[in-house]
Amino acid sequence: MTRDEAKNDRDDMLIDGPDYQNPNPNLISDGFNASYLKVYYSKLFPYSDMFKWMSYGNDGKHPGCDSSYFGRRELSFTLDNDIYLRFQSFKTASELESAVKEKCPFKIDIGPVYSVDPSKRHAYAQTGDNVFKPVERELIFDIDMTDYDDIRYCCSGADVCRDCWPLMTAAIKIIDIALRDDFGFNHILWVFSGRRGVHCWVCDAKARRLTNEQRAAIAEYFHVYKGNENSQKKVSLGGPGLHPFLVRSYTEVLKKFFEETYLSSQMLLSSEERYEKVLEMIPDESITSELRGKWQDNRRSSKEDTNVFRWGQLKHVLQSGKQKGQGLRKCVEEIVFSYTYPRLDSEVTKHMNHLLKAPFCVHPKTGRVCVPIDPNNCEDFDPTNVPTLSQLLEELNRESLGEDVETDLERTSLGKSIALFRSSFLQPLLKSCKEELEDSYNKKLQQSKDSLTW
User: Residue 3's pLDDT is what?
Assistant: First the structure.
């Protein structure tokens, strides 16, 4: 890891690299305070829930469970001064809690479950065998708003607002529906990254056991965006007909979002500079000249929004009967996909050994907690209204601090997020895990009985 890479906001993942020290420590925003973080870890961080999630029923309470499972999970701590501690592992929730309270990490990242305890990997390396390797890892997705900078005009970089955040809402809807309907996954957790994007954790047993090749195939299934700021054509939609997944994405989410929300909120056709970017996606010069002439003239009888009016003209020209070429008709869909389709960091999805920030961490730049997002009501999620560390401490201090964590949680705005995590994700997941453990255990018992039968 280079010094420049280490300075970047590490919202997404970590890979192997040497420890690094930031020459400018304590560069934190008003929403983040290291001393407040100690109180947060002491009073509000849901250690028990995190342990239950990452144990997947292997909590030692069932004879068929794997008691070493949680202890083979890698956790990474980012400490003050950007010191990275990789391959941390813990046997119990109390061990995890003690370590977090002691080290007070600015960020916690979750890695895979390895074949052996990752903290003891060097001992196994001396054997000469390739014993230390990842064996399970959630299927993960990382969507970052900075990847949309070429098509949003309200913000750039790490900044987000209510006008551009709906891009994340559209991404959640499209990816979540496909994961459930096309791949049959059920236990999916969406989490706000704390600043500028969203993370997705697919936690079904069959998802956790996917190989790198299978993960890459799923990433490729979602891969449509191929452009950059210098590309005229931003997407590749395949042959003459759209894939059923893309048809559903367009008809159920993207078309309405683009035409009713994003077109006007970003004023995509309001100025020559902006509409020229759209015209560049049309390969027929005669059509672009016709539209350019109409828009430069700027005369219209309707009081309709300029962006909506011009989009109607563009659609009429491209989709009218005289346009015989399927490619030109497809330009409308290509423009919509270019501006609104999810832009995934595929490398995060493809490899088991990538780290991803843990839910309920506090983002050190914004002070906001990485809270779950309900995919069924994701349009109601407001990133500017997510609890901050200082806000939570104020809520706790309105009354004297109690001894009971649950009581403290209920007195803060974080309580609703914890309740959502438990009811919509954790409880159904653990129920499924216990059923799977019970079924596997009973099968092994039956096989043992059968082997003793003469």
Answer: 35
